[in-house]
Amino acid sequence: MASSETVIRFDKVYFEFGNKTLLSSASFSVREGMKMTIMGQNGAGKSTIFKLMMDELQPKNGKISIDRNLRVAVSHQVMPPEDKACTVQQFFQKYFHDKSIFNIDTRIAEVLGVVNLKAPLEKIISEFSGGQQARLLLAAALIQKPDILLLDEPTNNLDREGIDHLTDFLRTYQKTCIVISHDADFLNAFTDGVLYLDVFTKTVEQFVGDYYDVVERIKAQIERENMKNAQMEKQAQANKEQANVFAHKGGKLRLVAKKMREKAEELESAMVSTRREDKAIRPFEIPAQEGIGGTILSLQKFSVIQNHTVVEKTTDILLGKKQHLLLSGPNGIGKSTLLESLASGKHSGSFIGDGVRVGYYRQDFSTLNFDETVYDCLSKAILESGRRVEEQFLRSTAAGFLITGEIMKMKIRYLSEGQKGLVSFARLVFLQPGLLILDEPTNHINFRHLPVIAEALDLYEGAMVLVSHVDEFVWQIRIDDVLELDR
Question: Where is pLDDT greater, at 284 or 263?
Fold first, then answer.
């Protein structure tokens, strides 16, 4: 049970990045021992709140109060590039604060046990799978023995066993924990309350209760606000129409007309802004490359990692148009490595048909040029497809993925991870690939968008290879064949 002591307080915090306001008069508090979720649309500023808590960013106005005697540690969404060249031992040495202990190997073994990962101390971080790196990031936070633990999308890349293990850990975790995640079932298993970040008003609303209960209360609140808006809009319009009638009659009625217009303005100003972040992306289609047929992808052999050893295996898979293949297996077995080699065309045990355009969705978004603007990225995809499209079509398609004109001008490196995911899907729409390769496409994506994405993949008429640990997502997509790498 959480105590009454407040360990984090935001008081009218204002923060902007460039010319974009992310927080405006944001206020909330977190008590000791609470497990809270930060909820909000992709790009709303959830990860920014963590950086403010970690003192990595400073607010323009307002006050952030965190007891400096308390240690705060964060488990990031993705492994920092500078850490990927480290050995496991070097990686943990960077995050271990107690320098009085000369040999930290015992402590490393303890936190690796907590995250259920076997990791040789001499192994390089880049050699681990995305799911294993997610566990290492959590372990790096835990080795700091934090009083406040911040988890940024901790289930990304984790297989079902990893998510279950993390859920059990958080249920029994005694200290304060704040989590950003789009996995509703995971959040509902341990959440005490929600910090709801409104991307439109830039404020934070605080709710107490389990995750599903809070989501329903927010939904009901939005419906009430929309109904109230509709009533006030109707009343304001009636006042305007009546004012126009009185204004033409002259005399004292002109004064009445003026008062009715003022009343209409009061009603309009009292209307609550509709919460845009509750919109899902628009339904979309990924057109398949035209003029291709026969075998698009042939896979005859592949490698997996078992007990840190490479094992060669054989198979006989042929994919043509409208054929979807699911790759399955636990974290670390080599799914992402196989997808990368297939997409590069350098896999010795596979063949991609001549002229087939490959659309590759990487879980780390490294197929995107982070120094390009979003507009340039999408324009290049159109050029790769060999087509010419109207500017209006480009922008309206992007808008369907909640990519506004403001976002189009931003460099990709400044987008949130969720926004990078939406840009990646928009890019695939413009690219029109013949072979679609998708590595954990649900990572970082707002759960409201997932049914729309699943429907687009289900209807895709080219050849497709998919890796995803989210069963509920996969069940919505037509799968014609499954390759189980651990069998």
Answer: 284
H, E, C per residue of 299-348: EEEEEEEECCEEEEEEEEEEECCCCEEEEECCCCCCHHHHHHHHHHCCCC
How far is 409 from 418, CA to CA, in rounded Å? Answer: 17
More confident residue, 334 or 279: 334
Extract the tokens encoding 158: 């984790």
Average pLDDT over every residue of 69-90: 91
Global pTM?
0.75
Residue 273 pLDDT > 60, yes or no?
no
271 has pLDDT over 70: no
pLDDT-above-90 percentage for the chain: 49
Contact 460, 294 (CB under 8 A): no
Residues 230, 224: Cα–Cα separation, whole Å: 10
b/e code 224-236 from CB counts within 10 Å (16+ = b)? eeeeebeebeeeb
R_g of the chain, CA atoms, integer Å: 26
Length of the chain: 487
β-sheet bridge partners, residue 179: 37, 151
- DSSP H helices, 87-210, are 88-95, 105-114, 130-142, 160-172, 184-188
What spatial distance separates the first Cα and last Cα of the chain, rounded to whole Å?
44
- Encoding tokens for residue 172? 């029994």
Residue given tokens 């101390």 in the structure block: 121
Least confident of 212-216, 220-224, 260-264: 260-264
Tokens 């021992």 found at: 33
Tokens found for residue 387? 């087509």
Cα-based angle 132, 134, 139 (whole degrees, multiple of 5): 95
Q: What is the pLDDT of residue 402?
A: 92
Confidence of residue 276 (pLDDT cuts 50, 70, 90): very low
Mean per-residue pLDDT, 78-89: 90
Q: In what order do the strands lie in the sheet with 309-319?
A: 309-319, 297-306, 350-352
Residue 334 Cα to chain centre, angstroms: 23
Distance (Å, whole) CA 438 – CA 234: 48
Token couple for 402: 């909640």
What is the Cα–Cα distance from 319 to 305, expressed in whole angstroms?
24
Which residues, 6 or more positions from 320, have their beta carbon under 8 angstroms from its beta carbon? 293, 294, 295, 296, 463
Pick the closest to residue 331 from 89, 474, 134 (CA basis). Answer: 134
The stretch 463-470 carries a mean pLDDT of 94
